[in-house]
Every structure is written in structure tokens, then in C-alpha cells.
Amino acid sequence: MDLIEMNPSETLAWMSDYHCPPYITLAHSFHAPEGWLIENRTLKQYALQYVLNGMAEYPVAGGSYVTVKGDLLFHRPGEQHSIRTVENHPYVCISIVFHFGQTSFPLDELFQDRHHLGNFTGQPIERKLGEIVQLYSHPGLDRQLKCQGLLMQVLAEASQGKGQEEANAGGASNHAKLILLKNYLITHYHQEVRHSDLEGVTGLSRNHMILIFKKTFGMTPMQFLTWVRIQKAKELAIQTDLSVSEIARNVGYSDVHTFGKMFKKNTGSSLTQFCNTLTTDYLNTRPRIIPLAEENQGYDEP
After folding, report:
1. What DSSP string runs through 198-264?
2. Which of 108, 235, 258, 295 could form a cystine bridge with 220, CB 3.0-4.6 A?
3. Quick one: which H or E segment has residue 139?
4. 146, 184 in Cβ contact below 8 A?
5. Of 21, 26, 32, 27, nearest to 134 (Cα)?
6. Average pLDDT, the chain
7. Selection from 180, 181, 45 nearest residue 118 by Cα
8. C-alpha dihedral sign at 122, 134, 79, 161
């Protein structure tokens, strides 16, 4: 039975080792093949997605996150989400799907409206998620009880992640600063972005920031910004009737010719050609991504 597709109440008859919430309907690790994706899925249960290795784009409930090793994502019942792998990057993750049956559990009090719960590389949460997967694969009352206990610990510890990051902002690790920088670029892709802005966000020098960002994410900050703009431009081309010049403005380019050169250099075709190749089947297919241009592509000057 595919328990994760069911309403919570429908799963209980199939979960003989569970006698109280939380009810875990899926706990596994997954190594995604090249080009794998989930597009616009909606579950009736809660889900945690933890990145063990690699990188993936994770649109959820109108927002979008580019997740990397250590990132923990959360979504609620009824929230539409997608998972899109990135060309030339692996994606290995842990997925935990669960519900509380008829019990009203205040997860919104723990997480408010957050989907990205933090980055937990090398922290106890990572180990506990791995233990849940191992125990879940061997049914039995004792193992399921341990899974339930570990899941509640993960939820409690993940709820504290943001507060701890804010409290320690002055002495945050480089990795935490890079996550902050990555989310800044995702949020401000439609604006003019300069390296001086990014230095202000992270408190890191330009050269050091570029070096460690590329080492962590496989591209420089400006390459990542270009990648985000390309994905947003494709989304607008598919989902709206905006003209090319309007799309250019929406993704941060006041000059449509500059936008056109950037798009063609990084994808191998113009946006108009991209639109002309769209078919009904294409909407369920991951867009092809070409390696990005050099770090200074865009507004920032050397």
C-alpha cells in the first residue's frame, strides 16, 4: 500500500505496530538518478526532506529553495511542492512522511510559516534521521516506538534551529553565512545585486566569499544568481503571457538585450525559442540546465 498518498485516517488499518501518534508512513533514503524530479505534488500528510549530499531545487507553497547538504525542508498537508535535481549535481536525501491521526498537534506553533528549518550538517538531527530510516526498514513494535521517539526529538530540535542561528548571528559559521547568502540571492533575484551587497549580508570579504561559496555549491554567487534568474524566466514564460521584455524586468534586467544575451549564453537558445519548443508534455519535464556564465555576468563590474 502507498500509505503516503492516503488520508491519515485511512492509513491506520495498515499500521499494526503503531498505537499512538506520530504515525510514520515513509522513512527512507533515496539516491536520485540523473534528471529525476517530482513536479507539483500535494500530500495529505506532513513531510521532512533532508539533503544528505548534493543539491536540488525545492519549490513549495509559492516559495523556492535551492537545497544543499544538511538542509532540512518541511511541508504541511495540502502544500504543493516539487523537487528538481540540478544537472551535474548528485541528490541524495532522507524523506520522512508522517501524521498525527485524529490528534491535533501544534506543528505551526513550532515552525510558524517556515519551510526551510535550517542546515544540520554533522549535527545530532542528521544522525537521528538516519536512525529512523534504519529502524523503519525493520518492522516491529519496539523499533516503531524508537522511530516515533526519534521523530519527536527531530521536530523539537529543528524548531530551535532558527532561534539559535539568530542568537549566534555575530559568530555564525561560514556555512550558516553561505545559507543566508543563498537565500538572499533567491529572494532578491529581481533586483540589482552587487558583490558589495553580498559582503554586507555575510560579513565576508569578496574573494573569500566567492571561494567558499563555489566550494560549497559548485558555482560562484553571481553564477548562482544567474541560474535563479534563468529558472524564474522559464517559469514566467510557461505560466504567464508576459512579453520577453516584461520577463526580463521581472528577473532583474532593465535592458532586454542584456537579458537575451545572458539567457542564450547559458541555455543555448533564446527565450523565444524556448517558448516555441514548449509542448504539453514539456510541462511535466525538467528544464535542461547548461553550465552558467562567469561570475561577473550581470550587473557587477570587475
Report:
1. HHHHH---HHHHHHHHHHHHSS-HHHHHHHHHHHHHHHHHHH----HHHHHHHTT-S-HHHHHHHHH
2. 295
3. none
4. no
5. 27
6. 84
7. 180
8. negative
Give the pTM.
0.62
Quickly count helices (H) and strands (E) in the chain.
11, 8
Give the dihedral of Cα atoms 253, 297, 181, 57; nearest 10 deg: 80
Summarised one tens digit per residue, pLDDT across range 177-235 is 888 898 889 889 999 999 999 988 888 888 888 888 887 777 889 999 998 999 899 88
**Is the per-residue pLDDT at 236 higher than 80?**
yes
The answer to whether residues 267 and 256 touch, using CB atoms and an 8 Å cutoff, is no
Round to whole Å and give the CA distance between 143 and 287. Answer: 41
From 31-35, 134-138, 159-163, 204-208, the region with the lowest mean pLDDT: 159-163
User: Which residue ranges form the domains of the chain, and what is each CATH number?
Assistant: 3-167 (2.60.120.280), 174-284 (1.10.10.60)
Residue type for position 283: L
- Compute the distance between CA of residue 266 and CA of residue 264 in angstroms, rounded to an integer: 5
Pairing of strands 91-99, 23-31: antiparallel
Q: Where are the alpha helices (DSSP H) in the chain?
A: 8-11, 107-111, 124-136, 141-167, 174-187, 195-202, 206-217, 221-239, 244-250, 256-267, 271-276
Question: CA 106, 111, 115 angle in degrees (round to 5)?
Answer: 125
Q: 97-120 pLDDT, tens per residue?
A: 999 998 888 888 888 888 988 888
**Angstrom distance (rounded) from CA 278 to CA 242:** 15
Q: Rounded CA gap, 72 and 208, in Å? A: 26
For residue 168, the one-letter residue type is N
Q: Give the three-state DSSP class for 189.
A: coil
